[in-house]
Predict the 3D structure of the following.
Amino acid sequence: MILLVTFVVVGCSNKQLTNDLNVAHSSCYNYSYGESDFEKDYDKAFKWCTIAAEFNEPSSVTLLAELYLMGNGTSKDLAKAHELYLKAAKQDHLHAQLMVFLISNLYMYEATTHEEKVEGVMYLEKARDRGYQKAIDVYNQAYGKEI
């Protein structure tokens, strides 16, 4: 199934219609990090990341979650960040899996349920088992174990 989405982007450098995930994702990434001759601009990053996330591609969803987590280009919203990271984690995005653990078991510890905390550990272990070094490091730090 092919998903074609058309958006109007106002305030972005190219002010064009896009139905191209690659354009939306690369603009999201480049504005977020100031890469590829783009100036870092969180407002533009948020607009492009929102567009890119509509394609449901896990890397784009993870970038949007990061903006919510940090409050860059939008208001800081840990619950929205958790929701987006979880969406990408379910698609096997390794960094999103790590972030589900961190949000549910650290950043929002008091606001998450026992089930959400357990789910976070499960995703941390999945990312660790797939060799994601950041997840391995966090797991070892949290549980004092080497694998």
The first strand starts at residue 7 and ends at 8. The first helix runs from residue 21 to 33. Residues 86 and 143 are 22 Å apart (CA to CA). Residues 1-17 have pLDDT under 50 and may be disordered.
